[in-house]
């Protein structure tokens, strides 16, 4: 089996969250979805498990953070700058909040951040590895 990542996220409205993630380009894997959880697929290696709060609590007793807090920013790569913009636009149109941080445009890299309906922060990023400055890389 190749290495994969399963990002587990607590959500308040499973159906709305599924619609949001479908709108920004994820597909649902019904084999791992039910009325308490949905497996949303970004790629062969990246899966997002959307879990109702009740289901989440079967995994941990730790508190679910408030939507205004931010513990992590989840980044996914896009094929182009236009795809980054399209994902951000789709997020805003589907219950998320667009551009929660300033747009990053470094020429060789372009990124925009948004939140899902539960406040989880995502970054859509495009990068041209051939254009990365090698003398003074960004820090």
What can you see in these coordinates?
- The structure is a single chain.
- The protein is of the alpha+beta class.
- The chain has a single domain (5-131), classed as 2,3-Dihydroxybiphenyl 1,2-Dioxygenase, domain 1 (Roll), CATH 3.10.180.10.
- It is 19% helix and 32% strand.
- The chain has three helices and nine strands.
- It has helices at residues 14-23, 53-56, 81-93, and strands spanning 5-11, 27-29, 37-41, 46-52, 73-77, 97-98, 104-105, 109-115, 121-127.
- Strands 5, 6, 7, 8 and 9 form a five-stranded mixed sheet that branches.
- β7 and β8 (109-115) form a beta hairpin.
- The radius of gyration is 16 Å and the shape is globular.
- The termini are far apart.
- The model has no long low-confidence stretch (mean pLDDT 93).
- Helix/strand structural class: alpha+beta
Total separate domains: 1
What CATH calls the topology is 2,3-Dihydroxybiphenyl 1,2-Dioxygenase, domain 1
If classified by CATH, what would the architecture be? Answer: Roll
Unreliable segments of 5+ consecutive residues? none
| Strand percent estimate | 25-35%
Broad shape = globular
Q: Mind summarizing the main beta sheet? A: 5 strands, mixed
InterPro entries: Glyas_Bleomycin-R_OHBP_Dase, Glyoxy/Ble-like_N, VOC_core
Domain VOC: 3-127
Pfam families: Ble-like_N
Organism: Geothrix edaphica
């Amino acid at each position: 089996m190749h290495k994969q990542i399963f990002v587990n996220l607590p959500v308040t409205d499973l159906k709305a969250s599924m619609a949001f993630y479908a709108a920004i380009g994820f597909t649902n894997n019904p084999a791992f979805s039910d009325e308490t959880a949905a497996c949303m697929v970004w790629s062969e290696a990246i899966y997002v498990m959307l879990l109702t709060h009740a289901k989440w609590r079967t995994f941990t007793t730790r508190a679910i953070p408030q939507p205004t807090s931010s513990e992590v920013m989840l980044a996914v790569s896009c094929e182009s700058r236009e795809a980054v913009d399209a994902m951000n636009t789709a997020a805003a149109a589907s219950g998320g909040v667009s551009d929660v941080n300033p747009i990053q445009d470094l020429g060789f890299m372009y990124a925009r951040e948004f939140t899902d309906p539960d406040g989880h922060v995502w970054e859509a990023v495009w990068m041209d590895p051939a254009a990365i400055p090698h003398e003074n890389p960004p820090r």
